[in-house]
Amino acid sequence: MLQGWIQIAIFFAALVAIVPLLGGYMARVFSGQPVLLERVLGPVERLIYAAIRVKPDRGQDWKAYARSVVLFSIASFVGLYAIMRLQGSLPWNPEGFKAPPWDLSFNTTASFVTNTNWQYYGGETTMSYFTQMVGLAVQNFVSAAVGIAVVIAVIRGIVSRSGTSLGNFWQDLTRATLYVLLPIAFVAALVLVSQGVIQNFSSYSDVTGVVGSVQHFAFGPVASQEAIKELGTNGGGFFNVNSAMPFENSNGLTNFLEMLLVLSIPAALTFTYGRMVGNRRQGWALFAAMSVMFIAAVAVVYTAESNPTPAMTAAGVNAQTTDGTTGGNLLDKEQRFGIANSALFNAVTTVTSCGAVNSAMESFTGIGGAVPMANMGTSEVIFGGVGSGLYGMLLFVILAVFIGGLMVGRTPEYLGKKIEAREIKLATLGALYMPFAVLIATGLGIATEYGKKSLYSGGPQGFSETLYAYMSQGNNNGSAFAGYTGFIQPEAGNAGSFGITFADLLGGGTMIFVRFVPILIVLAIAGSLAGKKVAPTGLGTLRTDSPTFVVLLIGIVVLIGALTFFPALLLGPVVQGLTQELF
Amino acid sequence: MRKDILTSFLAIIVFTVLCGILYPLAVTGVSQVAFNNAANGSQIESNGKVVGSKLIAQSFEGRRDYFQPRPSQTDYNPAGTYFNNAGPNNTDTRDLIAGNVKAYLALEGRYNADLSAENVPVDAVTGSASGVDPHISQKNAEIQAHRIAAVRKLPLPTVTQLIKDNTDGRFIGLIGESGVNVLELNLALDKESSR
Predict the structure, then answer these.
(1) How many domains is chain A built from?
(2) Cα nearest neighbour of B26 on chain A
(3) Domain coordinates in residue numbering, chain B
(4) Domain limits for position A444
(5) Which residues in chain A (458-497) have CB-CB distances under 8 A to chain B?
(6) Has residue A75 been placed in a domain?
């Protein structure tokens, strides 16, 4: 165990080191300060503005900004859906895959446009190189850039001195892609390739092994997609088994790098926030609140997975950790990651809305599987998705300021701006919208005949599968208890390309709503805050950069998540964690 | 509004060219030159013929003269991967693991008198996430070494040394988990036997 804890500590230390570097850099990028890369990419940036016909300096109020976000996402949707449905006639399709059916294409398009990357398909058995590279991976970039743009607009609203402009969406989108996502992804992709992650356009091929068994190999431009899949907290695997596949994640180093890529932008944005509001402590306070919850999640899942499951024990396996074995619940985990790095990876990708996996959640112990669900139950604000994590957290900050204000009997204000009825109403709506959507979708999935078609296991495990599916899609996460609808296991030759219409539509709709409703809400709040005057800090002001406030904020996040999801979690994973019974 | 719609569609085209074509082609170009073998799947040759990838486990069909990789739910298929998705409290999961234990003991029990379900290494009786996990634990390899030494009539220390030579350690001794690469080990074994 000790070795595992040391690895986790090293990882966290690396993350803390990155935060001010990347966070400070992003603050420069989005405040219009000069950055070094501009010398190279500046002409490209100006070329893009000319090509898409925008004047980057023209400010947009919140409604105009929101309209651009929505219209761009609609255009993305149309483009990606078209690529998928035309797959059969497009190039770079070595296995000759036909187009995925309309319902699966709808779900997948919704999934990638909303930064979810939920997958009802197996990548290497359903999607051509063209679809993955020119369709899906492009959304990995731009859906992440949209998230960053929105949170930057919200920050501008908070700091604005009685204006209406939140900046220009097209400029933010372009700068996020050009100066943040592309350069980091490019370097990361090359490091991944150097370690064994593949990057080619070879046709699938048969290889005869040492004793004569024939293996059919799938290839593709994996590393370029893997890098942005993690960096943009997207999580959609090139292969069906995602980052467990050695061609996507080949050793301890690539695993470490991939985890770091996932957390780097969401964590660094807290620093960007501190810089842009002119008080770094505000940023560190949010980072601290997120870190506490993250470390708690890692500790629980690692401890849980270090023990065998009841099914293992019943099979007579002791699974003790001795010299030369990992011990613990190694079922559906890879030897090169062991227990510690599987537990850490899955905590990293579920506190964020990444949803990549390097081991199968469904085979986790009961408590180990409850952790990702609890992480998602907090609305993905423990670092969360790129941009979306921070703007989600800011909703909770507004609620905390309000509740804290009530406790001390003052008018709630945040960074000098009065928080009034309109903001509170919007923030409450934003915090409760997700549980509402998730629980209704789960209810439909459990109670209807159509929903039952997707179940793989019976008993509490079947319930967990359904709950996980809609929590994941309802938080734009994308990880899965992959047995759900997974009984149609992919086989080479496009057989994985089936949809269950009910699950596809319900999930797709959920993903779209939970992505865009909160975006509209936070932009509306930003618009309303932008016009307010800044009041000087007084004695009665509730400080929002103190440890007390961090505790209050954690309390509110946990309380809202716990109150809404605790009963559901009890029925599934918690029951499984508490019993040795088999079902 | 109309201008915004036009801009939206132009933007998705521009970003598709940039992020969907230029970026991956640039990555491919550099990696094909700088990391050719890795970029193409880390293939391994034996006697001038490609026999697999060092990153992907392959079937040794349970043969007694070779080290065996972890069990695979996909029959070691790298082009149609899926998880076991075996719930922690499922009777199916118990049966799956019990079957693996039985098979492992049937193969190794003869050569390891004190081996029982209680002390089998967990990696030996559980399917991996990818189904093509190229590694096994050192403990698992050491147990199998007794069989290999007996069947191939090699001294046990020679086999143990080969295991050590084909163990991938942690990155800088700290990150990840060490494991024995089964394909590389078996190729080294064949080389040793043919000497």
Answers:
(1) 1
(2) A186
(3) 41-193
(4) 2-10+20-578
(5) 459-461, 464, 481-483, 486, 489-492, 496
(6) yes
